[in-house]
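Methods, example record. To illustrate the input and output format used throughout this study, we show the complete record for D-mannose binding lectin. The sequence lines were provided to the predictor; the line carrying structure tokens was produced by it.
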Amino acid sequence: MRTTTRRPTLKTVLSTTTVAAALVSTGCVTAAASASASTGVSHFTPARATALSQRIGAAKELDSSTVPSTLTACNNIHADNPTYWISSANGRYDFVADHGAGVILQLVQFPSAGAYSNEAFGTWSAFDNNVSKDDNTSISFYCNGDLAIRTGAGGLIWNSNTAGKGGKTLTINNSGNLVMTTAAGAVVWQSGSRADGIQANSVLPSGQYLHYNQISYNGQGSYNSSLSMYTNGNLAYSINGKTVWQTNTKVPGSHAALTTSGQLMVISPAGKAVWSSRNGYGSINTGFDTGAAVIQVANSAQTIIWRVPGTDFIPN
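The corresponding predicted structure is encoded as:
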């Protein structure tokens, strides 16, 4: 979570060498991570997510009646168009054509944070780090049913590989999942995306998880992370499916909560706190961002008050 109004450019800030080394240190290295250790990995930063949401928010204020909820086959949206996104019915998620990327944003508001009240968590992104920040990138839903993110010159960044499968409508639902369906409503493809973060005074129920996923050009640097509240009472953070950190709590049915003081806690069904991040200086204007692995306050200092142990290599 970041609160800057400056639109940053994507940089190669996270390498697979770094990821592999970090996973080795926790005993979680995978063959895939080791094999790709020589390639660069980009990261769709929280700062960029917030900058995007601010641009979209300003456009919606100018003309909220033009915000589309679906993208139908044979149509596209472009980064330089007046409307370059589709929104969920509840207004909490946007699928956006950005410069060099297609991105799903979770929109978050902190009502008492003043100038820092509108934030966004990136929940899913597909991008090419080498594309210019001025590129008129498109999200194209072809008549043959394939969904593709392309550069302004037509270069492929990512596609769904759904040509010939009958896809007709693309919608982002109220849970943040981007779904392609046939004319009859059958699901052809879905992003599997969901909420990336929670705000202060919110809970993560037993059996639920937060998730962040990024896909870079040609699959180099594909990366995902999750914060999972397991039904056995354990809260765990994973990268590419491998556990990096966990609370080792064992009270079945417990839930996680981010308190109004900005502490992440595991609370038993009886209401007893069985684990706490024990950080301070938070407020109601605090959120946990799974992609960045931090608890951060929405303020001018962009104050990080807690980080998931073992994730210092993740950029903020």
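Annotations derived from this record:
The chain has one domain: 14-307.
The radius of gyration is 19 Å.
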